[in-house]
């Protein structure tokens, strides 16, 4: 993810989920906490962006660390085993291209 993908996510998806004054908790990823990232959230959703403390993911997001991380690794390994590395790269490049052109 980069700033372009973050802006797309906020403008096309997140803004429809926030319909009242809200606080959006984000990790320390550059796209989330940059001035541009915070501005797009503020403009599109009027939510207040609060950044989690550095290195607090395991405490604040235990599901991300304990369940989703290992699950993602297993799914990726299975995908590579079944589809092969070339197919994986083809799909990743296709997704990246779609994000760049806004399709």
UniProtKB/TrEMBL annotation:
Where does the record place the DDE-1 domain? Answer: 18-83
Q: InterPro entries, alphabetically?
A: DDE_SF_endonuclease_dom
GO molecular function of the protein, one example? nucleic acid binding
Judging by the UniProt lineage, the source's domain of life is Eukaryota
- What is the name attached to this protein's record? Unnamed protein product
The species this protein belongs to is: Phytophthora fragariaefolia
